[in-house]
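Narrative of accomplishments. A recurring question from our advisory board has been how the design workflow behaves on a single, concrete structure rather than in aggregate. To address it, we present the structure tokens for one chain from the evaluation set, followed by the sequence designed for it. No filtering or post-editing was applied between the two.
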């Protein structure tokens, strides 16, 4: 469970890491219809992001802690309130057995934490789960199962083909609890009414 980009890697102008992708109404792939994706990495080699507006079905944060032997079933009952509130999201169709914790940057775990943007980091190790259980984790966090991935040039082609809009991220979009409302709220950041999207260009 390690991020794919080194912690020290700097963002390159023209790439969208740290931005939100919004699926256009014409998105034909049902896995991404009305999806809101936070881009964790984007370079000439491709892109990786997490869907942040779809809840994982039939699994809770406590369930995952038990499965990973972070806590016992008995210990899960006594979790700190913050740990019990961590949502589990369906992060994307790739490697759905892997977990990625997107979180505020008040937590860092040596080489396993990737700082994506100011105030936002990604950690994909069990250490952060233990820290959350012990009350020493980040102030805000979501756990995503799986991710969305694009090969070299693929995302750029999809954007030019009116597949996606992009907009700046903010803490409420990333960590807020109203998952179903995130799509419309993100469009609102662009001043866009969903009913008027058809035929618009695929970039902000």
């Amino acid at each position: 469970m390690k991020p794919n980009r080194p912690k020290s890697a700097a963002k390159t102008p023209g790439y969208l890491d740290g931005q939100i992708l919004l699926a256009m109404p014409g998105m034909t792939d049902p896995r991404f219809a009305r999806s809101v994706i936070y881009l964790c990495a984007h370079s000439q080699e491709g892109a990786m992001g997490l869907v942040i507006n779809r809840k994982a079905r039939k699994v809770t944060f406590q369930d995952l802690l038990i499965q990973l032997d972070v806590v016992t079933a008995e210990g899960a009952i006594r979790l700190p309130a913050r740990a019990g509130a961590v949502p589990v999201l369906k992060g994307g169709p790739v490697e759905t057995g892997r977990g990625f914790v997107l979180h505020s940057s008040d937590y860092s775990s040596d080489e396993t934490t990737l700082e994506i943007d100011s105030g936002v980091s990604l950690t994909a190790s069990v250490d952060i789960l233990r820290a959350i259980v012990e009350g020493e984790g980040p102030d805000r966090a979501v756990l995503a199962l799986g991710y969305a991935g694009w090969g070299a040039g693929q995302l750029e082609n999809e954007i030019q083909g009116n597949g996606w809009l992009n907009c700046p991220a903010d803490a409420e979009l990333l960590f807020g609890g109203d998952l179903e409302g995130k799509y419309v709220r993100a469009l609102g950041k662009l001043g866009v009414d969903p009913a008027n999207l058809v035929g618009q260009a695929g970039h902000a």
